[in-house]
Amino acid sequence: MRRLLACLLCLAGASASAAEPLRGTGDLGIVVERARGSVQVIETSTDTALGRVEGLGDLSHASAVFSRDGRYAYVFGRDGGLSKVDLLTRTLAARVVQGGNSIGGAISQDGRLVAVSNYEPGGVRVFDAATLAQVADIPATYGNGQLSKVIGLVDAPGQRFVFSLWDAGEIWVADLRDPAKPEVRRFKDIGRQPYDALITPDGRYYIAGLFGEDGMALLDLWDLDAGVRRILPKYGQGGERLPVYKMPHLDGWAIAGDRAFVPAVGGHQVLVIDTGTWQEAGRIEVLGQPVFVRVRPDGRQVWVNFALPDNGQVQVIDTKDLRIIQTLNPGLGVLHMEFEPKGEAVWVSVRDADRVDVYDTATFARTATLPADKPSGIFLTDRANRIGL
Amino acid sequence: MSWIRMALLGLIPVLVFTAVGSALAQGAAPEPGPGQPSPGPSAERAAALRNLLVQDCGSCHGLTLRGGLGPALLPADLAGKPPAYLQATILYGRPGTPMPPWRPFLSDADSAWLVETLQRGLNP
Question: Under an 8 A CB cutoff, do B3 and A246 touch?
Fold first, then answer.
């Protein structure tokens, strides 16, 4: 009997391995193909595409988070779609259309909850990460019962989600330890039109950038009673802003040691902030309006892409002496850059050329290029185990 | 220096031609002279404008134009709105909102084509 069982097991093993050899997920990722409504599953050990998963809806401004085992990507589409993509089988494991118009999401500290921020209906909805069944709904009410668009949603320690209300000018901290009864703490009058936010990699500080006025709003999650305080209040004061052709982004990749690098809004500058004092520590002139400002994992380089009309170029800043050391011309429509886990290479999406390029970050040589259909966001699985990504 | 002044000084075209824009700006339809009907953009220009509409306008209004940070731009949303008003919004933006002026990239004929396309529907 035992022999029979062993033989059956061996048969089962053989059939699984015949389909596809076993593999891990640490070198996997996805490239969003925004117009086609698909993602490509990529692999960074040999820079190849493993396949495509279709049927994800309107993926303009799509972003993704990963399950902690790196197997599933939760993709947040503009049309309110939340798709769970299995990177190993390259199939759609689950999908719900949970809102009319959404902007991004986050996965909880314990990996069991996925939250989505919605423009329409304004608020945050929370789903079971396994089944995508809805477990909580947090309408972003303000004023006389209006609903605000929600942006800058991140996960935070303590099974919390933190997000900002574009229309209301508020930051909310939602505690989901009991998903049936989310406890929300609101911070009002944080500034006009928060457009995006980041949380520091240690999960302590939440910083929202303001579009409607100068400066940023800072919340210390270790000391909520201290409330929100304004940083960089004088930034841009008295100067006239240039029109903004693409909203800048903020994300946790902007922190390098004791400095944060953030895009100026309506200016051709990257701002350097001292994270000890939250004072401005410098400005770096760049060739256009920054969209993404991303720090290489070791903190030594910052890569910047730009809004129209400069979206064909990328600049690299050396953080040691805060100067630009390289300007690259990948092609029109550079929408995103994603570093490999230890930073030796970076993936760059070039929308109008229908290409994803891989650059060596030491030599700046292009080392690989893959065809992709109007690629935008690139997300690698090492995000799975980072706070705020 | 104000945006307007920069435009007057001709700095904008320089900026535009340095990068992208190039593709878009180079194809800008010539302005029709007085009394002449607008010839409309060339097929090549129309393709560039369609790409702009889907990809760049889509950043805020959604790839399917159902709205995002900016409002929905489907025919039903724009029904009854005077084309001149919509063209002015495209060319000069909406102060106090994130809608920027697209004047540096677009001619009058371009904006007319965009409004007509939006009011008719991108994929009729």
Answer: no
Asked if A211's CB is within 8 angstroms of B59's CB, the reply is no
Q: In angstroms, rounded to a whole number, what is the distance separating the alpha carbons of residues A113 and A68?
A: 11
pLDDT of residue B66: 84
Tally of CA atoms within 13 A in the half-sphere of A32 that contains its CB: 27
Average pLDDT score over residue span A327-351: 96
pLDDT tens digit sequence for A25-38? 999 999 999 889 99
- Around Cβ A321, how many Cβ atoms within 10 Å? 7
The phi, psi pair for A29, rounded to 5°, reads: -170, 180
Q: Which residues of A touch B58 (CB under 8 A)?
A: 60
**Stretch (H or E) spanning A233:** none
Q: Catalogue all structural domains in chain A, each as residue range(s) with its CATH number.
A: 26-385 (2.140.10.20)
How many Cβ atoms are within 10 Å of A4's Cβ, its own excluded?
Answer: 8
Which of A266, A162, A146 shows the shortest CA–CA distance to A210? A266
- Residue A257: what pLDDT? 82
CB-nearest partner of B98 from A211, A312, A332: A211
Q: List, in order of start, the domains of chain B with CATH numbers.
A: 43-120 (1.10.760.10)
Q: Which residues pair with A136 in a beta bridge?
A: A126
Token couple for A114: 């996925």
